[in-house]
Amino acid sequence: MVELIKVKPLTDEYLESIGFYWHTDEDNSSYVADELVVVSDEEAEAYYEAANELYDMFVEAGDYVIENDLFHEINIPFNLVENIKLSWENDVHWHIYGRFDFAGGIDGKPIKLLEFNADTPTALFETAIIQWALLKYNGMDEERQFNSVYEAIRDNFKRLVTLSEDVSNFEELYEGWKILFSSIKGSIEDENTTRLLQSIASEAGFETEFAFVDEVEFSSEDGIFYNDRNFEFWFKLIPWENIAIEEGELALILTEIIKNQKAIILNPSYTLMFQSKAFMKILWDLFPNHPLLLETSFEPLEGKAYVEKKAFGREGENTVIYAPDGSIIEKKDGEYGNFKSIYQEYVELPVDSEGRSYQAGVFFAYEGCGLGYRRGGKILDNFSKFVGHVIR
Question: How far lies 271's CA from each of 96, 268, 277, in Å?
Answer without folding.
Answer: 10, 6, 12
